[in-house]
């Protein structure tokens, strides 16, 4: 019998999760049951993905950089990667700004709804503001200072410090290139092997993906706030989702024009990572799967993917930056503020930087949004307006974050002649025909 492709299995898991979650909300004690007996499996699934994110970044990047063999190749590819990442982010913010100015979702919020939401959710957003404050108290070069860990082992204990781990890995990889080959050989072989082992772990974890997303979504549905809130925020949510959808179209067009690969090929290849991004709201948790899909199913050479993707998961968040632009202007509109053109242009810069600084974990985009609001003089109390619907939008923007990374890796691969044919080499040889 022909086996179902992985993305279909994951999709079925998601749909069943939503249905079971909805049913449970109608049954007495159903919510508790899902929380006690289903949710833990979702948590375990995310944990096991997150568990390998840091070792993967270390192994993949050290392997990726040292494979390049000479520094000029590294700086060429590194430069290209960063430039394309920043460009796609700026395009995303711009699309968000144009849409939010055309649709004007904030104007449909009445004053009563606004007051009500600020009262209801004001307390809950405190945590975000405090987290953001910690970042605010620092000087202009703080981001640079934060890039360099004072202790790699303590940096590697939190997925929020991925940028620091990245720094260490690139530095280590460069040094590995610079020592005589015979001396570095063993170290290089070790990281090559480690990389293989971790990719195998991803394969095994993916066997559980349909069940994992089932548990995640069932728990999310029983814990989600009332539908009424969604209605009040429907225009805002729609603006964000429309912008994100446009980004998907853009990625496909760029890939088609630049690499001649069809949208079908690209979307089929990357869809399991997208579905996982949606279910986990975390590009860091999704990274192992993104790596595997891009390398084996989209034909990007490991030399490119193991360099471009870990960096992308950490700094390239097109979905997050688009959302931050829409959210900032939406809040301003809801508070009856007019934002001058220069302020809006400033939002392009701040949202780009804020998305680079956002950790690849759930809700991080909202923390960094505080900075964008602060820059544009928009009341932070407005966070309460978008709080209720942030999780579903987080799920959607994470899809774009991951898809953007995959797109850029294909472009970089093409530009250095490293885009080949897919070569599925693992278990899904048998399972994913
Ligand atoms: N959840 C997003 C990610 O991990 C970040 C965010 O926008 O909150 O990519």
Query: What CATH architecture do you see?
Result: Orthogonal Bundle
**How would you describe the shape?**
globular
CATH homologous superfamily identity: Sodium:dicarboxylate symporter
Bound molecules: aspartic acid
- Low-confidence stretches are 427-433
SSE order and pairing:
Blueprint: H1 6-26, H2 30-51, H3 53-67, H4 71-103, H5 111-121, H6 126-136, H7 142-147, H8 152-155, H9 162-178, H10 181-207, H11 209-223, H12 227-232, H13 234-259, H14 263-280, H15 283-297, H16 302-315, H17 318-334, H18 341-357, H19 364-376, H20 383-387, H21 390-415, H22 428-431
The structure holds aspartic acid.
Describe the structure.
- The protein is mainly α and 433 residues long.
- The protein has a single domain (6-432), classed as Sodium:dicarboxylate symporter (Proton glutamate symport protein), CATH 1.10.3860.
- The chain is built from 22 helices and no strands.
- It has helices at 6-26, 30-51, 53-67, 71-103, 111-121, 126-136, 142-147, 152-155, 162-178, 181-207, 209-223, 227-232, 234-259, 263-280, 283-297, 302-315, 318-334, 341-357, 364-376, 383-387, 390-415, 428-431.
- The longest helix is centred in the N-terminal third of the chain and has 33 residues, at 71-103.
- It starts with 5 loop residues before the first helix and ends with a helix.
- The chain binds aspartic acid.
- Aspartic acid binds next to helix 19 and helix 21.
